[in-house]
Amino acid sequence: MSKNSRVKVYIPRKLEGKINQYLSSPEIIAVVGARQVGKSTLLRRIYEKITAPKIFLDFEDPEVLSLFNEDIKAFAKLYVENRDFVFLDEFQYVHEGGKKLKFLFDHYNAKILISGSSSLELSFRISSYLVGRLFTFELFPLSFEEFLNFRFPEATELIANYLKERKSFPSAFHRRLMELLNEFVLYGGYPRVVVAESYEEKRIVLKNLLSTYLMKDIMGFFRISSEHPFQKFIRALGIQVGNLLRYSELSSLTGLNLREVKKYLEILEETYIIKLSRPFFSNKRTELAKSPKVYFVDTGFRNYLLKDFSSVFERTDAGFLLENFVASQVMKTGAELKFWRTKSGAEVDFVVEEGRKIWAVEVKAGTKVRPGKSLWSFIRKYKPRKTLIIYSGKLSFERVEDVEIIYLPFYALDFVLGK
User: Fold this and answer.
1) Residue 257 and residue 254: Cα distance in Å, rounded?
2) Same structural domain, 178 and 322
3) What b/e sequence results for 327-346 when a residue is b if at least 16 CB atoms lie within 10 Å of its CB, and e otherwise?
4) ∠213-215-219 over CA atoms, to 5°?
């Protein structure tokens, strides 16, 4: 893409295929996620491929929004009647949206797809009216696999083949993928950031995205009166990535009381800036850690807040930053973030639940690692389906005490999760 080009680049999203599976079902489809993750682009992509009678409406258009809010019957007559598909973008601006969607669902046969920028907003406004009538899909910033499909498309098939054949990656291929991983972890997966042609441009985009978040999604909707303490609070969270949250410490650092600290955490999680990892346990007496851990949905945001874009592998917080990368990849699969920690201090970074089976996931920044006592304690207690050590080295496998441990390069994680 040339510097002067205004043509939008579409980066294929995994979610597109999932949504396409439900286009013939009667339920309303809601795509929720942060601003600028590509919800509108994704909906338009799906819209363009449909040949049946259809319409795409944007509720940032005040005339369309006003008619929907003030006269749903007239809106339906004008836009919904005689159409098979109705796309409603930026649905968070609607008043009493659930009630109006229920009217459209009950009186028309059109398939309705909506998008919204906050799960909390849509939850408040529509879910109670649409029980059993709504399928909700979350769209996150690009996963590393989606990023690779754009930057180095040949790599995705090669990685999948090497994993299938259980072969280590060639050195030159490994180095190139680690370079791309470094870029992705530093600047994150927001589509507009990914397509930016220089690192300077990427930083400018991140700055503008963060300002949009604070001013539109958070400061306005949740009526937060002062921007400074809120920004200070988010920066404090950036320092605490990967650690147990200390509410009293956050309160002391930011000047917020404990009630405000917990309220802001909830707001940031519901608006897709952070994600809390909560403890996995079977024995509350010995394993339960009450405090969650915090991770940023997008590592680029975290680095911008800390004003640090130095190479991942040359910084003192490399371990925490790479742990955040793994957390973001896990959450993008739809899995719930959990960690294991005993009262005696044994800990496993991530426990991924897959039905009744679980995976143990440890994150290490180095290239030469071995499973520690904590991981072995977890393996012997829970017998996980898979045990992954995510690190900077090459793919390898080890079987100890009848347990297979997969040493997995960071860039290959997407190709194993959920498989």
Assistant:
1) 9
2) yes
3) bbbbbbbebebbbbbbeeeb
4) 100
Residue 139 near residue 13 (C-beta atoms within 8 A)? yes
Cα-atom radius of gyration of the chain, to the nearest Å?
23
Indicate if 157 and 126 belong to the same structural domain: no
Q: Are 409 and 395 in contact (CB under 8 A)?
A: yes
42: phi then psi, degrees, rounded to nearest 5: -65, -45
Q: What gap in Å lies between CA 368 and CA 317, rounded to an integer?
A: 18
Do residues 294 and 274 lie in contact, with contact meaning Cβ atoms separated by under 8 Å? yes
Mean of the per-residue pLDDT values for the chain? Answer: 90
- Alpha-carbon distance 128 to 130, whole Å? 6
- Looking at the predicted structure, is the pLDDT value of residue 120 above 70? no
Residue whose C-alpha is closest to residue 64's, from 54, 77, 48, 75: 75
What single string gives the DSSP state of each residue in 333-358?
Answer: TTPPPEEEE-TTS-EESEEEEETTEE
Count of residues making up the chain: 419
21 and 161 inside one domain? no
Please give the distance of CA 357 from its chain centroid, rounded to a whole number. 23
Give the DSSP H or E segment for 277: strand 274-279
E-state strands within 125-219: 134-138
Give me the helices (H) in 166-226, please: 171-187, 191-195, 199-212
Q: Strands 134-138 and 54-58: what pairing?
A: unpaired
**Which positions ≥6 away from 305 have C-beta within 8 Å?**
210, 234, 235, 238
> Which carries the bigger pLDDT value, residue 183 or residue 36?
183
Q: Containing domain of residue 384, as a range?
A: 144-415
**pLDDT grade for 117, boundaries at 50, 70 and 90:** confident
Q: Model pTM?
A: 0.91
The pLDDT of residue 4 is 42
Which residues, listed in sequence order, are joined to residue 31 by a DSSP beta bridge?
115, 137
8 located within any domain: no
Intra-chain end-to-end CA distance of the chain, in Å? 34
